[in-house]
Amino acid sequence: MSTSISLLSAFQLDLIEAGCDEAGRGCLAGPVFAAAVIFPADYCNPVLNDSKKLSEKKRMELRPIIEQEALAYAVASVSAAEIDRINIHRASYLAMHRALDQLTIKAEYLIIDGNKFIPYAELPYNCIVKGDGKYLSIAAASILAKTYRDEYMESIAHDFPDYDWLSNKGYPTIKHRQAVLNLGLTPHHRKTFKVTEPQLKMVF
User: Where in the numbering of this chain does the RNase H type-2 domain appear (predicted)?
Assistant: First the structure.
């Protein structure tokens, strides 16, 4: 079982720290993406912030900077079909695990955005609510997960123009919900997410 240690203890132990975050948890369609980022211990970038607080242009400007300046980073996803099989909560953590698997430097300590996590490889970790606004590696992970997921949704949007994925990226906007109600589900939709008016209900 992984243990949770304090951030101060992790710093004192000089552990290699990876920040993790996901994107697309609340979407009706498409995969959930996650990223893991390891920065140098003394890394500083005053522009980095929670991806939701940045414009799309700023996120795209920051992505190559993150990829160049990180000691290691990785992005992974879990498909809509997998989400339907294991539920979105487990899928979000599985995406993080897959990203951690791909890191070229082995993490020794994890900081996770949110309040829950499924332990990974017996590594110590801490969950930090709104961590993407507090820690640079989590902020960077949120930007990578968000930009890679947005690009994926844009790549499939032209095949299903009525669902407005170029604009909503799979999130449950009114236009997206209405398209599902009128036209049905595509192969990219999460079938365990039931669309109703005006509420969205997750069924597991």
Answer: 15-204
